[in-house]
Amino acid sequence: MSLDTQVNKARILIEALPYMRRFDGRTFVIKYGGHAMVDDKLKKAFAQDVILLRQVGINPVVIHGGGPQIGQTMIQMGLKPQFIDGQRVTDQETVNVVEMVLAGKINKDIVNLINLNGGRAAGLSGKDGHTILARKRNHRRKSETDTPEEIIDLGWVGDVEAINTDLLELFKSSDIIPVVAPVGVGKKGETYNINADAVAGHVATALRAEKLILLTDVPGVRDQAGQLISRLETKEALQLIKDGVIVGGMIPKVETCLTARKGGVAATHILDGRIEHALLLEIFTDQGIGTLVV
Ligand SMILES: Nc1ncnc2c1ncn2[C@@H]1O[C@H](COP(=O)(O)OP(=O)(O)OP(=O)(O)O)[C@@H](O)[C@H]1O
Ligand SMILES: [Mg+2]
Predict the structure, then answer these.
(1) β-pairing, 191-193 with 183-185?
(2) 3-state class of 66 per DSSP?
(3) First to last CA, the chain
(4) Which domains does the chain have, with CATH numbers?
(5) Is the pTM of this model over 0.70?
(6) Ligand 1 within 6 A of CB of 250
(7) Dist. CA 270 → ligand 2 center (Å)
(8) How far is 194 from 98, CA to CA, in rounded Å?
(9) 9-23, 138-152, 197-211, 273-287: the lowest-pLDDT one
(10) What is the pLDDT of residue 97?
(11) What is the DSSP letter of 228?
(12) Which of 206, 198, 216 is nearest to 258 (CA)?
């Protein structure tokens, strides 16, 4: 290695120094989308990033998704995934698969990945420590005509009622990184499937996080022309949703960022989890990547 290359490496570390100082002791909530969990190299880079954050004094809290993995398992089991307005219709059999895949498989895979790469992680679902309290979602669909809006039963799909932070707070004083599956629990102990972006947003607000970072499988939010929007303001975001430019899985992300901002989270980002070390690039370098929602 030439001396120049070595000096450059030192410069990169120095560029990160002000960010490390600024974020020392702060909480970052990171949502790792099922769509970003594509290959082993990227998963490893994600785990390393999270471990580095913890090592420099940041408290990372990982919330994961798992849409594609739930779909695959359902098909293997002879069940047929169904969606209404982009939301999974979740009957009793489906919610069993959701809990099994999210809390059982994906959660432990991520914990294992962090542990194997030199960190320490512990997995939990919303049931552990009564962390994610949920209620049934009444999905309303606005009709084109003047008829009243339809209420559609999606089954065991929930909204976050409250986040109980007791268990998550314990991790702050340890070096263990919490990894949370977005499974909520109702008043009677019933299990709810909740969108992981929404869970991440509520957790970020409840923990007074410094940042909420949503890792997905696109470079960020795109406009009508397909161009990446680096800074997205509330008014423009709502307009893009209304115009049908932001659709599907991007809607809960943008809405979550807007609510988290209102709830006091200082910065909310939507990033491409398919870029190696996307987290480090966004957090520790002068020019970020992805979309910052303001
Ligand atoms: N305006 C837009 N800009 C960028 N992506 C958009 C836009 N509108 C819709 N999308 C879609 O949103 C998708 C991301 O949401 P999706 O729910 O599919 O993934 P995820 O949330 O990362 O994964 P998971 O739901 O498994 O946690 C993108 O793959 C893209 O197709
Ligand atoms: Mg999604």
Answers:
(1) antiparallel
(2) coil
(3) 42
(4) 29-293 (3.40.1160.10)
(5) yes
(6) yes
(7) 12
(8) 10
(9) 138-152
(10) 97
(11) B
(12) 198
pLDDT at 122 over 70: yes
| CA nearest ligand 1 atom 18, residue | 249
- Ligand 1 site, residue 216, Cβ cutoff 6 A: yes
pLDDT at 70: 96
- Give residue 249 CA to ligand 2 midpoint distance, Å: 5
Adjacency order of strands within the sheet including 177-181: 121-125, 177-181, 59-64, 27-32, 211-216, 267-272, 291-293, 231-232
**Would the CB of 33 count as within 6 Å of ligand 1?**
yes
What b/e sequence results for 108-145 when a residue is b if at least 16 CB atoms lie within 10 Å of its CB, and e otherwise?
A: ebbbebbeebebebbbbbbbbbebbbbebbebeeeeee
Q: Which two tokens stand for residue 26?
A: 């702060």
DSSP-derived secondary structure letter, 128? G
222 Cβ closer than 6 Å to some ligand 1 atom: yes
Q: Which ligand is nearest to the CA of 63?
A: 1
**φ, ψ dihedrals at 47, nearest 5°:** -60, -45
Q: Is the pLDDT of residue 145 over 80?
A: no
pLDDT tens, 16-29? 999 999 999 999 99
Q: Are 29 and 203 in contact (CB under 8 A)?
A: yes
What amino acid is encoded at 81 in this protein?
A: P
- Could you tell me the distance, in angstroms and rounded to a whole number, from the CA of residue 15 to the centre of ligand 1? 31
Any alpha helices (H) in the chain, and if so which ranges? Answer: 3-23, 40-55, 67-76, 92-99, 107-116, 166-172, 196-206, 234-242, 250-262, 278-284
Q: Which pLDDT score is estimated for 206?
A: 98
- Count of helix runs (H) and strand runs (E) in the chain: 10, 14
